[in-house]
Structure formats: structure tokens, C-alpha cells
Amino acid sequence: MEETISLRELMETLQKRIRLIILITLTAILVSGAVSFFLLTPVYQSTSELLVNQSKSAGQPGFNTGEIQTNLQLINTYSDIIKSRNILEKVSGELDGNVSASDLDGRITVGNKDQSQVMSITVQDTDPEQAALIANKTAEVFQKEVVNIMNVDNVTILTPAEANQSPVKPQPYLNIAIATVVGLMIGVGLAFLLEFLDNTIKTEHEVEKLLGVPVLGSIARISDQDEKKSRNRSEGSSRVRGEKVG
After folding, report:
1. Transmembrane region positions (predicted)?
2. How many domains in the chain?
């Protein structure tokens, strides 16, 4: 016969192990908060934006669909050029060699939105001022070097990077929220596991369920205090009988 578990039994299991669930959840919250606030180093992010657009002379039309498509097709190439070792080594030189080209490659991200002529150079660093400096130096070096590399002059610095004093990671409150959910899941899972491994019989209901017969009687547990009171009553009765006999 297949054994089924009712919702009431599930709730009873959770109620019986509620202290364990709360303890595990609080531990996860405290560990996550301590790591996020005190152990992880804050990382800051700054972004410099570039506009890929050929400059116009007085006699040229202001809008050319074919030229815009060409600029859009060049953006992927420009992204690779910005991350090339040639550019990054020059940026490293502009920074007096304080950051190597390989380190710059790991900190710089180049991107753009679909069908947009605006490119973004995003830098992450543990120092907000340094992040803005790297982003601006990378934009300046690329703007200057792309003229020689591609033989075109169609890159303009649209928005210089500024130091952002709000770290992008870690996110302590998000980490704590995730830790709370994980702690609850672990606590509930452990509560059901302990209940599944516990094969002892504790109540009359469990006896009836296991044997399939009704319980006719039960023996109450006698605590030490009740036993002491019973002994005192017996001794008192003995003394009274002794006095009557005497």
C-alpha cells in the first residue's frame, strides 16, 4: 500500500523543526552579510561613450544612410581594435605603466546597442577615480590611433567617463536576500530529511498508523518532580499510620 503524506503532517514536521530552520537561515544571513560588507572589496564602474560618425564639411549632406550603415558595420571592428594589444599597451604607457596591458584587457568592456553608432568603453576597478581615468585614456588613445590604423576620422568622444562613488559589486542586500532563500531551502530540506530518517514512534497516532489497530491505553511519563511528590506523599502516609498505631 502506497504511503501518502498529508498537508497537516508536512506542517507538523515544519513546526517541530522550526528552530532548526530559523537557525540555519539566520546563519546564512549572518555569513552572507559579513562576507559582503567586510571581506569583499568594492568594485566601481565608469563608462566613456564614443560616437562613430564621419565629420561633415559644408558642402556635404547632413544625413547619409549608406554612411551610417558603414559606421555600424565598423563598430564590431572598432571593438576588437580597442581591446587589441597595440592600443592597450599605449593606454598602459599613458598611465605610466601602473596598469599592464593584460590587466587592462580584463578590466575593459566594449559594447554598443543594436543599430546605434554610440560605443561604450566600460571599466571596472577597485578605485573609482582609476576606473574613470582608464576609460578616458582608452577613449583618447583609440580616437587618435584609429586615424592611422583605419585611415578614417569618424570617432568622437561623446561623453567622458566620470568617477562613480557607488560600487557595482558586491551588492550586499541582494546577497543577503539570496542567502535567506537558500538558508530556508536548506533548513526545510534538512528538516524533512531528519524526519524521514527518524523511525522512532512517539505518539499514539503513529502507533495506530503503523499497526493499523486502535490504541486501548497508554502509560504516562512520570517526571522526576512527580516521582518526588509521590514519594513524599507515601512517606507522609507511613508516618501518619505509625502515629495511629502507637
Report:
1. 20-40, 173-194
2. 3
In this prediction the pTM is 0.69
Distances (CA, A) of 63 to 55, 56, 68, 171: 11, 9, 8, 44
> Do 75 and 161 have their domain in common?
yes
- Going residue by residue through the chain (246 aa), what tens digit of pLDDT does each one get? 445 567 887 888 889 899 999 999 999 999 999 999 999 999 999 999 999 886 554 445 555 566 677 777 788 889 999 999 999 999 999 999 889 999 999 999 999 887 788 999 999 999 999 999 999 999 999 999 999 998 888 899 999 999 999 999 999 999 999 999 999 999 999 999 998 887 776 666 666 666 667 766 666 666 666 666 666 666 655 555 555 555
Domain match, 72 and 158 both:
yes
Same-domain pairing of 49 and 114: yes
Cβ neighbors of 32 (< 8 A, separation 6 or more) are 175, 176, 178, 179
Q: Do the domain assignments include residue 243?
A: no
How far is 160 from 49, CA to CA, in rounded Å? Answer: 7
- Do 187 and 214 sit in the same domain of this protein? no
* 236 in any annotated domain: no
b/e map 72-102, b = 16+ CB within 10 Å: eebbeebbebbbeeebbbbbbebbeeebebe
Amino acid identity, position 150: M
